[in-house]
Amino acid sequence: MSTTEKSPLFSVQVKPRKAPEASYKRWLLAIGAAGVIAALALLTLTGSRSSSADFCDATFQESGYIQLPHKVDDHYFYWFFESRSNPATDPLVLWLTGGPGGSSMVALLTENGPCTIDANLNTVNNPHSWTSHANVIWLDQPTGVGFSYTTSDKDDDHNQVDVGRNIYAFLQAFLAKHPKYAKSPFFITGESYAGHYVPAAAHYIVGMTNATGDVRINLEGIAIGNGMTDTITQIPYSAHMARDNKYIDLASPEGFATLKAEAAACGKLVVQCQTNDSVCPEATQYWGEHILGPMMSYSNKTGNPYDIREDCSVDGCVDHIANVRAFLNTPGVQSRLGVHDNITWTEVATRVYGDFSIDFMKDYVSFVPPLLAAGVRVMVYAGDADLMCNWVGNEAWTKTLQWPGKAAFNNASVRPLLVNGKEAGNVRATDLLSFVRVFEAGHMVPMDQPQVSLTLMDRFFSNARLDQ
C-alpha cells in the first residue's frame, strides 16, 4: 500500500503492513394545522415511494427524496421503515452514518436495518433490526452522499451548522407528510463521524423549539456509537489502545511511550485547530501518520482499524459491502426505491469527505451540555475493539464533560450490561447521561453484537435501566 493512500473515514495518511490496496481506497468510510399547511407550502416532496410489500421487510416502508427549501436544488434521500411492533406508540428514530460522506444505506443493509443482502443480491431478514420496536429513518446526508443529490455547487455543505439546518429542514418536511409521528418520542442516532452530526442536529432542533409555524420535534434523546465528538479529549487517548486492550498489542513497551508522546503532540494541534482552520488538516494528517499508522503496522494482521481483532480481508473492511453496492446499483432496486436517474451509489462520497476536511478535527462537545439542560438524554456507547474512535477516549469525554451532573456521573458505579443473562459490557449512567462499553465489538456495534445492540437501544428508547 502506498503511504499516501487514505485511511478509513478520515483524511489521514497511514502505513499498515499488508492491507489490500483496493480495500483501503474504499475506507473513506462513519403540528398544528397551520404548521402543516405552511410546511407543505415550503417543502417539496419529490419521488417518494410508499410500499407495504415485502421488500426488505413486510412492514410499511417509504423511500425517496425531500427537497430542502433553503437550498438551490438539494434533494435528500431517505428509506423509512415502520416499527414491527406498534408504529403508533413506538418512537421515531433517525440514523446518520458518519464518514464524512458515508451513506446510511450501509448501516441499513449491514448493521441495524430490517434486512441484509446475500451474495445472490437477495434480501435476508435481520431479526435484530432496530425497527423491532421503533420507526426508523435512514438518511443520506450531507448533500451529495449516497443517493442524495444537488445540481448546484452552491448547495455544498462544509460544517455542522450546515448539517443541523439541513436535518431540521428534512424533519420538518417528513413530519408534515407524516403528522402521526409529530408527537412521537424522537431520537437521533449514529456512529463514527456522526459524533459530530448527531449533537449538531440535536442542538439545532433544541434551538428551534419555539419556532413559529414549525412542527415541534419531540426530541427525547441522542445515541452516539464509537463517535468522534470531543476531539480535544479523545485524540490524546488514541495511543491507549496500543496496549490498553484485551485483544492484541499494537506497540512494544518502548513504542507505547513514543505513541503517547505523539498523541499529546497531536492533541496540541487539535486545540490550535479550534481557532485556526489552517491547522486542522495538519492535525488530521499527524494523527494518521504518527499514531494510527504505527499501531496498524505493528502486528502481523492486515490493519483493520475498525476492529483490531480482525484482518482487513474484505472490501473496505466492512462485511458484505460489495453485495450492498451491487444491490443498490441494480436498476430494478433503484426504480423501486424512487432513486433519481443516473445516480451510481457509492458507500462514501469523496467530494463530501473533502468538503469536511477542516471540520473533522473541530470539537463539538459544547453542544452536549445544552441538550442535557433541556432534558435530552445522551447515551454514548463504544465497541471495545475499535481503534479509530476507541472506547477509552469516548469514556474520557463523558467524564470530563462540563455540566451540573458531572460529579454525580463520575461517582456513579460501573455496572455490568447484561443481555440474556450474560455480561455483554459495562455501564456508567445517571438519569440523563450514560456511557456503555460493549465487549467483543468493533467500530460498528450493531454488526458485531446485533442482539446486544438491539437490547441496548430498546432500553434507551424506553428509558429503562441500561444495566438491568
TrEMBL record:
InterPro entries: AB_hydrolase_fold, Peptidase_S10, Ser_caboxypep_ser_AS. Its EC number is 3.4.16.-. The keyword Glycoprotein applies. Keywords: Carboxypeptidase, Glycoprotein, Hydrolase, Membrane, Protease, Signal, Transmembrane, Transmembrane helix. GO terms for molecular function: serine-type carboxypeptidase activity. The chain crosses the membrane at residues 27-46. It comes from the Eukaryota. GO terms for biological process: proteolysis. Signal peptide: none annotated. The keyword Protease applies. Belongs to the peptidase S10 family. This is Carboxypeptidase.
